[in-house]
Write a structure and sequence with these properties.
By secondary structure, the protein is α/β, with parallel strands linked by helices. It contains eight helices and 15 strands.
Length: 296
């Protein structure tokens, strides 16, 4: 890789199936089924996508998907599709292993975003084991504490014991809104969001040629760019709508990309504001990040 070059990659993780009604909150099925076709059980396919940025010796991974840490019974319950750890396979296709990653930035600690931190389930192993032995784990302190003191509404979304493993690694770094990570020509600004889960961290990535928001579950896929569309999993939907409006205004003004973690087809898009309908809509939808060009 050139000394000053950056490379963006969208990496597949383990896909899932989730209830369409839960994913689209109070939106009627007649509306959301236009965007995502459900099966006969009302389940829709949900992508699991990580963002990898490579710059010189730094390999920054944004999230890990659900991974393959679940036992067969729990995997069936949570409708994780593949048996193996797909993200590790995706890294291997880039000539990398989990040992090469220098930073793992987690928007929050729900299992479908952080489960890939853990080694694949084996019936001979007792307990959980962290992967990424050289990485610094970056997460918001508020969400870290939430994972240890859950509410009955979101208890099933967190991984018991993960917070302790992260602490014991001695490579855990807490981040908050307005913090920044600067690595050579790459600057990442962290924005704190409370609507989906307390203390979720959005990453606003800026380079000399590309600006991109890693949105986490603020907008898990392009249908959720519609401000009024929220998930049943969102803890504070009205607050989330306000957060989307504020962040999307900045993305539109900056002509930045928005990266989708759960979109079943697209990795990213730009945003357009329709002056007539007074709403944002996704445009320039792309399935990979090969076209992104940086300068430096």
């Amino acid at each position: 890789m050139e000394k000053s070059s950056l490379r963006f990659s969208a990496l597949d993780g383990n896909y899932m199936k989730l209830d369409g009604g839960a994913m689209f909150g109070n939106a009627p099925k007649a509306l959301w089924s236009r965007w995502m076709q459900p099966d006969d059980r009302n389940m829709i396919n949900i992508g699991s996508r990580a963002l990898l940025i490579e710059i010189q010796d730094h390999k920054i991974l944004f999230e890990t998907g659900p991974g393959a840490y679940l036992s067969p019974d729990m995997k069936k319950r949570f409708q994780v599709i593949e048996d193996h750890h797909v993200l590790l396979e995706s890294l291997n296709k880039k000539g990398l292993g989990h040992e090469d990653i220098t930073h793992v930035i987690l928007s929050h600690l729900h299992f479908d975003h952080a489960g890939g931190l853990l080694r694949q389930w084996e019936d001979t192993r007792t307990g959980l084991e962290l992967l990424f032995p050289k990485a610094q784990f970056m997460v918001g302190k508020t969400n870290f504490e939430r994972s240890r003191s859950t509410h009955m509404r979101d208890k099933a979304s967190f991984i018991p014991g993960l917070a302790t493993l992260l602490e014991e690694s001695r490579r855990l770094r807490f981040i908050k809104g307005n913090d920044r990570l600067i690595l050579n020509d790459l600057e990442i600004e962290f924005i704190e969001s409370q609507g989906h889960t307390p203390g979720m961290i959005l990453s606003y990535i800026q380079t000399k040629g590309v600006k991109m928001l890693f949105a986490g579950d603020l907008a898990p896929g392009h249908p959720w760019v519609n401000l009024s569309i929220t998930m049943g999993y969102d803890r504070f939907p009205e607050g989330l709508i306000n957060e989307k409006r504020q962040v999307f205004q900045r993305i539109f003004k900056d002509d930045a990309w928005i990266f989708y973690t759960h979109d079943n087809t697209y990795a990213a898009s730009k945003l357009l504001f329709d002056e007539t309908k007074k709403r944002f809509q996704p445009v320039n939808l792309i399935k990979d990040l090969n076209q992104l060009k940086t300068s430096g």
